[in-house]
Structures are given as C-alpha cells and as structure tokens.
Design goal:
- The structure is a single chain.
- By secondary structure, the protein is of the alpha+beta class.
- It has a single domain, classed as Porin, CATH 2.40.160.20.
- The chain is 16% helix and 56% strand.
- An eight-stranded antiparallel β-barrel has the order 2-3-4-5-6-8-9-10.
- The termini are far apart.
C-alpha cells in the first residue's frame, strides 16, 4: 500500500477535490468525457431526425441536485451527501435520454474512526448516460423509472491531525449501473437510486435526492 501525504491547510475542500481529480481522472477524464458526450450527441441527433416530444420541451436540466448517500457495502463509511447535475433530451413524451455527473461524500463510521483529529472521507464520482420512462404524457406531474450506465471513480481522503491529508487506498475506476425511480412535480424532481459499480472494491450505495429542473415543462393542451 502506498501512502501519499500532502501538507495543506485543514479542511481545504477545494484542494482535496483537485487532488482527487488528479489521482482519478488526470489521464482518463477527457477521454471518458469525450466518449460519453459523443455518444449522447449521436443519440440525440439520431432520434431527433425521427421526431421529438410534442407535449414537453426538448431539453430539461437538473441544475442543482442535492441528496443523501447511504453505503450498502462494507462497514467503513456512514451516510453522506451527494451533489450533481443532469441534462436530458425528451425523445418522446414518455422517454428521455440524458447525461449526468454526481459527486458523493461519505464520513467514516464509528467502528473505523480512530479519533476526532483523524477522519476518513470517502469520495465517489460518477459520469454517464441515462434513460427514463415516464408513466404519464399529459401532465407536469408524473412518475418515472430509469437506468444510468457509466464510469465510477472512488477513493478515500484522510485528515491527519488537522494539517494534512492522504489518499490511503488506490483509486478504483470501474463501469457501473444505476437503476432509479422518481417523481416529477413540475420543476422539482425527486429520485431514489441505487449505485452499483462493478468493481468489488468500490463503494455501492443508495441515494435519495431532489433537484431543481430548468425547462422540461409540459406544453400540451
């Protein structure tokens, strides 16, 4: 096991996320981003030639999604929080295709916490494509089920005595899936999801979130 230690100001979240990015996606982020975004644009272009949703605006964007994240694998971390964003294109009145990214934080459980001055924080970043099926096509209030596929990147940041942190374990990058269900209330979207990366060492977790949605309104009469 390799320990990488950096002396920084305590609780400098911006620097922690920057270092996590460097260790995780520095070599692969742009490649992953280009691949997924290219697939998204190709699908949008292909389906738009065949038609588009008549009762809903073409695009909708979850500009701010905030939620809770509860690990279901292992006992190292307790529940944490997640922040993310997602852009969707309404292919049909009852079908959408989207592009999402989300970052989740987990705090060490009491069983593994060493003391109050040394805290482990788990991080999980996901990026991928989504598709949703809606059960109503005549209202701005409607339930949906969906699935996302993409890349999961997980790792651990440790605070050491308030003046340093280290990444203790290797960064895990793996393909994964995300089944979900939810309900749209106009421009408020509520969602329950299960994050399932296929790497056995990556953290699997349940999420519950709410998002403010821009566009995506019901245009039918």
């Amino acid at each position: 096991m390799t320990l990488i230690i950096y002396n920084i100001q305590p609780l400098n979240l911006n620097l922690i996320l920057n270092k996590f990015y460097q260790l995780t996606y520095k070599k692969h982020f742009m490649k992953i981003m280009k691949t997924i975004s290219s697939l998204f644009l190709i699908c949008i272009f292909s389906f738009s030639l065949a038609g588009q949703s008549p009762n809903y605006t073409d695009f909708e964007w979850d500009i701010a999604r905030i939620g809770i994240a509860a690990p279901t694998s292992g006992d190292r971390f307790d529940s944490g929080m997640s922040v993310g964003t997602e852009l969707r294109y309404n292919l049909l009145d009852n079908l959408s295709l989207g592009f999402r990214t989300e970052l989740s934080f987990f705090v060490a459980s009491e069983e593994v916490k060493r003391d109050e001055n040394n805290v482990d924080v788990g991080l999980s970043h996901t990026i991928g494509l989504t598709t949703d099926y809606y059960f109503s096509t005549v209202s701005s209030r409607r339930a949906f089920v969906g699935l996302a596929i993409g890349n999961y990147s997980t790792g651990t940041v440790r605070y050491e005595d308030g003046d340093s942190f280290l990444v203790e374990d290797k960064i895990n990058n793996s393909f994964g899936v995300l089944p979900r269900i939810g309900y749209e209330l106009g421009h408020l979207r509520i969602e329950a999801q299960f994050n399932l990366p296929f790497n056995k060492d990556a953290t699997k977790y349940f999420g519950l979130s709410a998002a403010l949605t821009l566009w995506g309104g019901y245009q039918g009469k």
